[in-house]
Amino acid sequence: MTMVCHRPEGLEQLEAQTNFTKKELQVLYRGFKNVRPGHAPLCFSLPFTQECPSGVVNEETFKQIYAQFFPHGDASTYAHYLFNAFDTTQTGSVKFEDFVTALSILLRGTVHEKLRWTFNLYDINKDGYINKEEMIDIVKAIYDMMGKYTYPVLKEDTPRQHVDVFFQKMDKNKDGIVTLDEFLESCQEDDNIMRSLQLFQNVM
User: Fold this and answer.
1) Cα–Cα distance between 81 and 141 in angstroms, integer?
2) Cβ density class 40-66: b for 16+ within 10 Å, e for less
3) DSSP string across 11-72
4) pTM here?
5) Whole-angstrom distance, CA of residue 173 vs CA of residue 132
6) HSE on the CB side for 42, CA within 13 Å?
């Protein structure tokens, strides 16, 4: 496989674009460079190939790291969806700028910013809407990642049951899709939905 090298934007520019200080960005970049498959990943840092310390992360490496985080489940599908959400330009790779921009939103963004990012994750085909099958796919991927040691033990149809309840609340005009506005409104007015999304952020 050909390794693509990439030099990140200046820290001053990233500091202006994110909610991190220059010192925090330096720490994140060191972790981003040095963590790789087979080694314990730093908290909130993505894997980075040792062979190309100013390169990019591909999806396979991303999946390997999530497999280490969740050894009792199958994290590959969720890692695929999460990778696509980080890869905002759809290039098949995640640069440090992609990583730190998303991390800034998830850790220090406003509620509105976090919800918009989560909507993008659930919008698998990037058509600007969430349908029920997309929501089921994401929720099922999270359950698969958590594995057989969840308590209480989950039934096969549990993801669909949870989605049926949430989707009915979100799809306010009953047209079979959830728009960004519907998603934002539903999440902010329903504590149960917000708690579920906070659980998702914990597995991020």
Assistant:
1) 9
2) ebeeebbbbbeeeeebbbbbebbbbbb
3) HHHHHHHSS--HHHHHHHHHHHHH--TTSPPPTT-----TT-TTB-EEHHHHHHHHHHH-TT
4) 0.78
5) 14
6) 15
pLDDT averaged per 10 residues in sequence order, the chain, 204 residues = 51 87 86 57 38 64 86 92 91 87 89 93 96 95 78 67 91 96 93 72 59
Is the separation of the CB atoms in 158 and 143 below 8 Å?
yes
Q: Who contacts 120 (Cβ-Cβ below 8 Å, separation ≥6)?
A: 85, 126
d(CA 81, CA 66): 12
- State the burial class of residue 97 (Cβ atoms within 10 Å of its Cβ: 0-12, 13-18, 19+): middle
Q: For position 148, what pLDDT does the model report?
A: 62
Expressed in angstroms, the distance from the first to the final Cα of the chain is 28
d(CA 72, CA 31): 25
- Which of 56, 78, 83 has the alpha carbon at shortest distance from 67? 78
Measuring CA to CA, which residue among 65, 64, 37 is closest to residue 50? 37
Q: E strands, 82-162, where?
A: 93-94, 130-131
The encoded tokens of residue 82 equal 């999460």
Contacts of 23 (CB under 8 A, 6+ apart): none
Q: In this predicted structure, what is the pLDDT of residue 137?
A: 95
Quote the pLDDT of residue 42. Answer: 37
> What is the DSSP pairing of strand 177-178 with strand 130-131?
antiparallel
